Structure formats: structure tokens, C-alpha cells
């Protein structure tokens, strides 16, 4: 398999390779590169590319702040202006992704 085929296959398969609800408008992840935010860093590297590839209409924003002590947080904005926040402090990337998918896939409530 060529390198390009391998990359595309990885984007189409794995945790996060799913179509999100149509009312998800924007996803923002804020974290510090200088503290214990390994889960958030790995989420950006491992899961977010799959989410972006499979949901091109949704705006994904990553804010890596330089100050230490910033608690990592994933914010989901919906079309009806509801906002769901997920704390990512001391959580592995797979768990962050699972919590994100529960909040954003079909059949889940935006305010849950």
C-alpha cells in the first residue's frame, strides 16, 4: 500500500472517523503545551485529523497557550447556540474522543 493510501485509510478508519450530527457548528480545544495535557496533545495528533476529514463543514480550532496551568477543555458549539464543554484534564485521548462522540453523534442531545 502506498504512503498516501495508508494515510487516507487511517483517516477513514479508527476512533474519530465518524460523521457528526449536522447541528455541530464549531469545535475548540484549548490546552497548554507546558503542563500535564498529554491527552489533549494526543487527541490533536491522533483523533482530530479523522474528525476533520470526515466532517469538512465543521470548524475545528486548536488553541495551544504558552502559559502553564491552563486546564485543557474541549468546547462544542451547536447551531442552536448551545455549548457543551468537556474537561480534558488528566484524561487519555481515547477517552476524550469517546466523550466527544457521545456529545456529537446522531441521537444524542445537544445539552446532555
TrEMBL record:
A Gene Ontology molecular function term of the record: structural constituent of ribosome
Example of a GO cellular component annotation carried by this entry: ribonucleoprotein complex
UniProt keyword Ribonucleoprotein, yes or no: yes
Signal peptide (UniProt feature, chain positions): none
Ribosomal protein/NADH dehydrogenase domain boundaries: 34-107
Major place of residence: mitochondrion
InterPro entries in the cross-refs: Ribosomal_mL43/mS25/NADH_DH (IPR007741), Ribosomal_mS25/mL61 (IPR040049), Thioredoxin-like_sf (IPR036249)
Subcellular location: Mitochondrion
Keyword set, alphabetical order: Mitochondrion, Ribonucleoprotein, Ribosomal protein
Keyword rRNA-binding: no
Name listed for the protein in its UniProt record: Ribosomal protein/NADH dehydrogenase domain-containing protein
Amino acid at each position: 500500500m502506498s504512503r498516501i493510501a495508508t494515510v487516507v485509510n487511517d483517516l477513514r478508519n479508527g476512533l474519530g472517523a465518524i460523521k457528526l450530527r449536522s447541528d455541530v457548528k464549531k469545535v475548540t480545544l484549548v490546552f497548554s503545551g507546558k503542563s500535564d495535557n498529554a491527552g489533549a496533545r494526543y487527541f490533536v495528533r491522533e483523533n482530530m485529523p479523522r474528525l476533520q476529514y470526515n466532517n469538512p463543514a465543521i470548524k475545528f480550532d486548536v488553541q495551544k497557550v504558552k502559559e502553564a496551568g491552563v486546564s485543557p477543555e474541549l468546547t462544542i458549539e451547536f447551531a442552536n447556540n448551545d455549548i457543551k464543554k468537556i474537561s480534558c484534564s488528566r484524561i487519555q485521548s481515547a477517552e476524550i474522543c469517546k466523550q466527544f462522540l457521545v456529545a456529537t453523534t446522531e441521537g444524542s442531545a445537544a445539552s446532555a
